[in-house]
Write a structure and sequence with these properties.
InterPro entries: NAD(P)-bd_dom_sf (IPR036291), Sc_DH/Rdtase_CS (IPR020904), SDR (IPR050259), SDR_fam (IPR002347). One of its GO terms (molecular function) is oxidoreductase activity. Keywords: Lipid metabolism, Oxidoreductase, Steroid metabolism. The protein is α/β, with parallel strands linked by helices and 244 residues long. The protein contains eight helices and seven strands. The protein has a single domain, classed as NAD(P)-binding Rossmann-like Domain (Rossmann fold), CATH 3.40.50. 45% of the residues lie in helices and 16% in strands. A seven-stranded parallel β-sheet has the order 3-2-1-4-5-6-7, sandwiched between helices. α1 packs parallel to α2, α1 packs across α8 and α3 runs parallel beside α4.
């Protein structure tokens, strides 16, 4: 895999669609070589990787690697000899009463949304320490800030991501590694297609911007965080059209 040490390399988890796909496109356009992961949709991710290589002239690797599986992450990072940017984007939701949720469903949400940040970060940090620099961006949610009825597990996982971000930023600041998170509002992705048109219209009416956010807007903010002054760390930036 990418062995040119002076070429910036970014790893994006959950990159086959939605926000992750937009992040991959934006970083490729900015000249980053990429390692992209997914848990199930490798043909779709491979198609994206080939398209980005052809369009932007960068090197892009697609890997079937579940971010919630520490063994899979160990295998993935064993093939890397450097890393400049880590974007923890992999995430799933669960909508329903807490009392109807099984232990397995709870663990799946927590592992995918929160534990994955630990699995990747603990392996990325030694690579970043080699250059005494690096950027970690975690994709969070407004529900991690305020909580949502019927989304207790999701809210808990994203609240954990926010605390994880703040604590790790303090730990890594002396090593010139910045850690920040983006707290997303309602973004127009497949994750929200479970809602009816009526429910989406009602939700849209609550948002001062009067529209859903676009994955490309999240991606642009990721790039801005990566390019921001190094003094910017430990921050949870809310991107929600003024909603919360």
């Amino acid at each position: 895999m990418n062995t040119i040490k002076n070429t910036p390399l970014a790893l994006v988890t959950g990159a086959s669609r939605g926000i992750g796909r937009a992040i991959a496109e934006t970083l490729a356009g900015a000249g980053y070589d990429l390692v992209l992961t997914c848990s199930r949709t490798l043909p779709e991710l491979s198609g994206l990787a080939n398209s980005l290589e052809e369009k932007y002239g960068i090197h892009c690797t697609a890997q079937m690697a579940d971010a919630s599986d520490p063994v899979a992450m160990d295998r993935l990072f064993a093939s890397l000899d450097h890393l400049d940017v880590l974007v923890n984007n992999a995430g799933i939701s669960y909508i329903g009463l807490l009392t109807d949720m099984s232990v397995e469903e709870w663990q799946r949400v927590i592992n995918t949304n929160l534990s994955s940040c630990f699995y990747t970060s603990r392996l990325a940090i030694p690579l970043m320490l080699l250059k005494h620099s690096g950027r970690i961006v975690n994709i969070s949610s407004v529900w991690g800030n305020v909580g949502a009825s019927m989304e207790v597990a999701y809210s808990a996982s994203k609240g954990g991501v926010n605390s994880f971000t703040k604590a790790l930023a303090k730990e890594l600041a002396p090593s010139n590694i910045q850690v920040n998170a983006i707290s997303c509002g309602v973004i127009d992705t497949a994750m929200n297609h479970c809602f009816s048109p009526e429910e989406m219209n009602a939700l849209r009416e609550e948002i001062p911007a009067d529209r859903l956010g676009q994955p490309e807007e999240v991606a642009k903010l990721v790039l801005q965080l990566i390019q921001a002054p190094t003094y910017l760390t430990g921050q949870i930036l809310t991107l929600d059209g003024g909603w919360q």
